[in-house]
From TrEMBL:
<feature type="domain" description="Helicase C-terminal">
    <location>
        <begin position="378"/>
        <end position="532"/>
    </location>
</feature>
<protein>
    <recommendedName>
        <fullName>DNA 3'-5' helicase</fullName>
        <ecNumber>5.6.2.4</ecNumber>
    </recommendedName>
</protein>
<keyword id="KW-0547">Nucleotide-binding</keyword>
<dbReference type="InterPro" id="IPR001650">
    <property type="entry name" value="Helicase_C-like"/>
</dbReference>
<dbReference type="InterPro" id="IPR014001">
    <property type="entry name" value="Helicase_ATP-bd"/>
</dbReference>
<dbReference type="Pfam" id="PF00271">
    <property type="entry name" value="Helicase_C"/>
</dbReference>
<comment type="similarity">
    <text>Belongs to the helicase family. RecQ subfamily.</text>
</comment>
<keyword id="KW-0067">ATP-binding</keyword>
<keyword id="KW-0378">Hydrolase</keyword>
<dbReference type="GO" id="GO:0004386">
    <property type="term" value="F:helicase activity"/>
</dbReference>
<dbReference type="Pfam" id="PF00270">
    <property type="entry name" value="DEAD"/>
</dbReference>
<keyword id="KW-0413">Isomerase</keyword>
<feature type="domain" description="Helicase ATP-binding">
    <location>
        <begin position="166"/>
        <end position="355"/>
    </location>
</feature>
<keyword id="KW-0347">Helicase</keyword>
<dbReference type="InterPro" id="IPR027417">
    <property type="entry name" value="P-loop_NTPase"/>
</dbReference>
<dbReference type="InterPro" id="IPR011545">
    <property type="entry name" value="DEAD/DEAH_box_helicase_dom"/>
</dbReference>
<keyword id="KW-0238">DNA-binding</keyword>
Length: 858
């Protein structure tokens, strides 16, 4: 069967030169050529040539070819008729020349707008060229994950540590994961589902937007369909408003019966309509993981504040209390975390919070910043940027009305492959946009923050801001949608003074005053139901109206929730929850009456909140105000610092990498966030000297509080050996790889070893190592490569086996802290700390091969 050649540069050249006689190929060799192919395939059916869509794509292809080959790439295209003339081509940065008959040559020109400084031009050239700038730190994946995931490697040591920690963390604990955008953070949530299957326990993944829930569900469905014996089938993996009543009932039933496996949903759904079924799952031991993606939102107080996000902490406590079997694990994930955010996690999700992080700033984004206070001139510059930007491109705005007006403006300018995405976009339309975006049918998305956080589109080449995000962190998050494939992406911010005012208004903490906070607390507390004998645990009605208001509104309820959350962050109380009762229909009750009673009950239930009061002076206005005032001050200080950083960014007075480094770096003991600096280029770099995309591999921080390791089999058979130092198992000189591998198999099966380290040569030469996890009762064995480990060692306290099969013993192996460390080596191998001494002579903490095998057989 012949396969039609894909569209590439040569075939595109041939197609254009022979248009319209030659049909377009069925597929492009990459996303860019696929976009061009789609436009070309529709041209013959249109009376008007879609030049606004076609010209930027042809420019991108030509510019990329020119930059990669250091030649002037050209296409011969038709001239006249519906095809553009020289002036029209120039409008998109394309030069048309050398007309011959009814054709001409076109070539792409660098974009050097007169409104940017000369040092800032050309714009987007590296994004057009697409030469990778990300360091390759891929490392072999653990075999127990290889088959279910279909992956051969981890993206980085940081991703490896985060995924391993998700499996090794203790039930009931909280894991904070901080990995840069493009480092495979989503796989941390996906891995347990892929390994255990949909009937191996429920993972609830809480995400901030419907777009992200739908996109994550799409990815998960594809991976399950391709890798799992029991794929997603007819299950809906995302909970959203677009589901029918029947579909929602089916999801709740699957959750209760342990068939759902994974569910992506909003925080509002978790604290609301999904809660009863989640409690049933917790009671039955069916809830495995509670995961919050984009968890930095848990610490926000501005307009982006969503009480439901912070209330998750209380629901978590209630669900943990409901667990009659093993408690579930909690994971909080984000690409960017400030020290303030991590402190919030400790308060709301502690105790038992652990951090795993490997943070480097992104080398892919290149920054351009321009101010124009004339609204019409600013809009004209943004439209010019859209015409000249590489594809695909995201245009970010702040307001829904701005998204609509920009969408209309682009469509009026002839752009057809455009989508508009904002908070009021219907779910059915969101599904279509996400599918079209992932399949290269959209070149430009005009979006508010409702789109883009976490959406898995790897080849976005430009992110343009027509508004100022409220914080530097938000800006960096949105810029991070570009260049996820490791190649450069352009970031252009064009703003006016009015945009700065809007950003500052959004970022301003919406905090209640000390006096009003006390009034709200006093009103809720006065009507509270005491739930324990000690007078610490209470059920509150968050619909309570304080004395100075007249009636209940959603606004009032939101401010009551804000008050409780601020009290929790100040340490005055812990947010909690209680399981809802089971409603049963009485024999004499009609279906209609029961439905009405149930509706009224749940309406009341969802306006209640359980708290554990920690502060004895909570009823004293002065004592209360003193503590709350300190918390408010911390929030305002953080907001002022955000404002200072934002002004430094938009004025171009600081190097962007320096600003971001200062924002995220932290030396807090136990919460250190060591950030490896990088910057693809910014106004300061271009003015003072070129940027360097070189950056060091970030330090990897792992966890030390893991599931208990079972040493009983080892200590029962070898009680005379000390666990305080490595135990050396000496092998005869004539040993081979098979001998060492049999030791590894016995160590896993008989003694519960869950970490095996070998040389790179032995791992490559011995595929049987990939089957070790099948001999483990837990199904998990971590397989290390000694050479890779030397660059980024970790101290996760696992039972460890190190096989030293080469001529030299790596020194780092002897420095690792493990509850049990067995080193397998020739007796004649030199001790790295005493070159004149052999490992067989190190003392009494040694074991022969015969002794080990005898112990393994007992």
């Amino acid at each position: 069967m012949r396969t039609e050649p894909a569209l590439d540069f040569d075939r595109l050249h041939e197609f254009l030169a022979n248009w319209p006689e030659q049909p377009a190929p069925a597929v492009g060799i990459d996303g860019l050529f696929e976009r061009a192919r789609q436009v070309l395939s529709t041209m013959s059916h249109q009376s008007v040539l879609p030049i606004a869509d076609l010209a930027p794509l042809l420019k991108h292809i030509l510019r990329r070819e020119s930059l990669r080959t250091a030649t002037t790439a050209q296409f011969r295209v038709p001239y006249g008729g519906q095809w553009p003339d020289q002036r029209e081509w120039a409008h998109y940065g394309v030069s048309a020349h050398s007309p011959a008959g009814r054709t001409c040559l076109i070539e792409a020109l660098p974009w050097a707008p007169a409104w940017l400084a000369s040092t800032d031009t050309p714009v987007f050239d590296d994004a057009f060229g697409q030469r990778p700038v990300r360091q390759d730190w891929t490392t072999a994946i653990d075999p127990f994950l290889a088959q279910p995931s279909g992956f051969d490697t981890y993206v980085s040591p940081g991703q490896r540590e985060a995924v391993r920690s998700a499996f090794l963390m203790r039930p009931g604990d909280t894991l904070v994961v901080c990995l840069p955008t493009g480092s495979g953070k989503s796989f941390v949530a996906q891995a347990p589902v892929l390994v255990k299957g949909l009937e191996g326990g429920l993972t609830v993944c809480i995400v901030p937007t419907t777009a992200l829930a739908l996109d994550q569900a799409r990815q998960m469905s594809e991976r399950l369909a391709g890798r799992s014996r029991n794929g997603a089938g007819e299950l809906h993996l995302a909970w959203h408003a677009g589901l029918t009543v029947e579909e929602k009932v089916a999801i709740k039933t699957a959750v209760r019966q342990g068939r759902q496996g994974v569910l992506f949903c909003s925080p509002e759904a978790v604290i609301g309509t999904l809660l009863p079924s989640l409690y049933d799952a917790a009671r039955s031991g069916l809830l495995d993981y509670l995961i919050v993606d984009e968890a930095h939102l848990l610490s926000q107080w501005g307009d982006a504040f969503r009480p439901a996000f912070q209330m998750i902490a209380g629901v978590r406590r209630g669900l943990l209390r409901a667990c009659r079997h093993q408690p579930f694990r909690t994971i909080l994930m984000s690409a960017t975390l400030t020290p303030e955010a991590i402190a919030t996690f400790d308060t709301l999700f502690g105790p038992g919070v652990q951090l795993t992080a490997a943070v480097h700033l992104r080398p892919e984004p290149q920054y351009w910043i321009h101010q124009d206070n004339d609204v019409a001139a600013k809009d004209a510059k943004i439209l010019e940027a859209i015409r000249h930007a590489p594809r695909p491109v995201i245009l970010y705005v702040t307001k829904r009305d701005d998204a609509r007006s920009w969408g209309a403006r682009l469509q009026a300018a002839g752009f057809e492959r455009v989508a508009i995405f904002h908070g009021e976009t219907p779910d059915s339309q969101r599904l279509k946009i996400i599918a079209d975006w992932s399949e290269d049918r959209i070149d430009v998305i005009v979006a508010t923050s409702a789109f883009g956080v976490g959406i898995d589109k790897s080849d976005v080449r430009a992110v343009i801001h027509a508004a100022v995000p409220e914080t530097v962190d938000r800006f960096y998050q949105e810029v991070g949608r570009g260049g996820r494939d490791g190649a450069p992406a352009g970031s252009l911010l064009v703003y006016g003074a009015a945009d700065v005012d809007v950003a500052e208004a959004i970022a301003s903490p919406s905090l209640i005053s000390d006096e009003l906070a006390f009034d709200r607390w006093k009103a809720m507390y006065s009507g509270a139901t005491q739930l324990d004998a000690l007078g610490r645990r209470f059920r509150l009605d968050i619909a309570t109206v304080p004395p100075k208001l007249r009636r209940q509104t959603d606004y009032n309820q939101a401010w009551n929730m804000r008050t409780l959350i601020m009290m929790a962050r100040a340490g005055l109380l812990d947010l909690d929850a209680e399981a809802p009762p089971t409603l049963e229909q009485s024999p004499e009750e009609t279906e209609e009456a029961f439905d009405q009673r149930a509706e009224e009950f749940w309406s009341t239930y969802y306006t209640q909140c359980v708290v554990d009061v920690n502060f004895g002076g909570h009823s004293d206005n002065d004592a209360f105000s003193k503590v709350i005032s300190a918390e408010r001050s911390r929030a305002f200080v953080a907001a002022e610092e955000n404002s200072r950083l934002l002004k430094s960014l938009i004025t171009g007075s600081y190097e962007v990498g320096e600003l971001l480094h200062g924002l995220y770096q932290s030396y807090e003991p136990g919460r250190a966030m060591i950030v490896s600096r990088a910057c693809g280029g910014c106004p300061v770099h271009r003015r003072d000297g070129g940027a360097s995309t070189e950056y060091s591999q970030p330090a990897v921080t792992g966890i030390d509080r893991i599931v208990p390791q079972d040493l009983s089999a080892w200590t029962a058979r070898f009680p005379h050996l000390s666990l305080a130092a490595p135990i050396v198992l000496t092998l005869p000189e004539a040993w081979d790889d098979g001998t060492a591998l049999s030791v590894a198999a016995d160590a896993v099966a008989a003694f519960n070893f869950s970490e095996v380290a070998v040389s790179r040569r032995l791992r490559t030469a011995s595929p049987t190592l990939n089957q070790l996890h099948k001999r483990s009762s837990s199904g998990i064995v971590l397989l290390e490569t000694l050479e890779d480990e030397a660059r980024s060692p970790t101290n996760t306290p696992l039972l460890r086996l190190s096989i030293l099969s080469e001529q030299a013993a790596p020194a780092h192996v002897f420095e690792l802290a493990r509850p049990l460390h067995l080193i397998v080596a020739r007796a004649s191998l030199a001790d790295p700390y005493h070159p004149g001494r052999r490992l067989g002579d190190v003392g009494t903490n040694t074991l022969s091969l015969e002794q080990f095998r005898s112990g393994a057989r007992q």
